[in-house]
Amino acid sequence: MAAHPALDAQGRWWNVGIRFGRRCEYLLVSADRSGERRVKASIGCERPGYLHAFALGARHAVIWECAWRAHPLRFLFAGESYARHFDWLPEQGSRLHAVDLADGSVRSWEAPALFAFHAVQAYEQGNDIVLDLCVDAAPVVEELGIERLRAGVPAAATRARHVRFVLAAGQSAAREETLPGRFELPQVNTRRALAGPVRHVWAASAADPAEGGAFFDRTVKFDHASGRLSEHVFEGAVALEPLFVPRPGASAEDDGVLLVHTLADDDAGSVVRVLDAATLQERAAVELPCVVPFGFHGAWVGS
């Protein structure tokens, strides 16, 4: 199963999994409040691509078939780490699948060879479907290899490209468009995204490699309406995914705060920075009594 299940506007749970066999399948699975899971759609393939997430829109789920493809028999016999069961096969390209949430029908488009962890958003535009992705290169996985980390090789910051794919009705290939910004771990106003395209995107990023950028050290915000990309830099600290918390009763899409887990060398413990989601100005800092190990994702729970 993908690491990122999602809830639709009706509160139904959705996720995508892969079933291995002589012929593999992507499975779109849903569940209501009873918890009973049902397979909504099945998409066959010989060697499925690495699956970390998918995109859920108002009427469609979009699954990207990465060019970093699994070797199913290795999972049975190799006894190696998870990442060793995949091969980068750019010559096979990628495919983008859109599943109708109502009837489970599937439409597919060819795409250039791609690797992606996360989607920014997916939405319908007339009869077309738009998918915004953080597109990276498969070798980024090697940056997190335990051998490299134990040897003291620093992990470079992800410099994923912000890319739009337009899945046009009646076309066999997706149209690719480059959007401003290089970032990862994107966040949006989820409630707004389930109703249509969002205006604001928040994410983690870093300085350009030429400037000595290492791991994530800043929160960025992209405004689709103005094309403006703004940032808040945490000097000397690593700063991970900004979690958007909407203000209760808010009408503006970016009315709320961002919670950002940070850690600097001289911090006694982790710090949760509270940024204004509209301006990226820091409003508060919550100093924790210990160091909380970094994950790539966090969560907030309303009280």
Task: Please trace the helix and strand order, writing H or E for each element.
Answer: EEEEEEEHEEEEEHEEEHEEEEEEE
Beta-strand residue fraction = over 45%
Computed structural class:
mainly beta
Strand order of the largest sheet: 1-2-3-4
Mean pLDDT: 91
Largest sheet, in brief, is: 4 strands, antiparallel
Distance N terminus to C terminus?
Answer: 29 Å
What's the count of strands? 22
Structural Rg = 20 Å
Question: What share of residues is helical?
Answer: under 10%
- List low-pLDDT spans: none
Overall geometry comes to globular
Total count of helical runs of at least 4 residues: 3
Please explain how this structure is put together.
This protein has a domain at 187-294. 5% of the residues lie in helices and 46% in strands. It contains 3 helices and 22 strands. It has helices at 72-77, 146-150, 190-193; strands at 6-7, 13-19, 24-31, 37-45, 55-56, 60-65, 68-70, 86-88, 94-100, 106-111, 115-125, 128-136, 161-167, 175-182, 184-187, 200-205, 218-223, 229-233, 237-246, 256-264, 271-276, 282-287. The strands form 6 sheets. Strands 1-2-3-4 form a 4-stranded antiparallel β-sheet, with no helix packed on it. Strand 20 (256-264) and strand 21 (271-276) form a beta hairpin. It is globular and about 55 Å long. The model has no long low-confidence stretch (mean pLDDT 91).
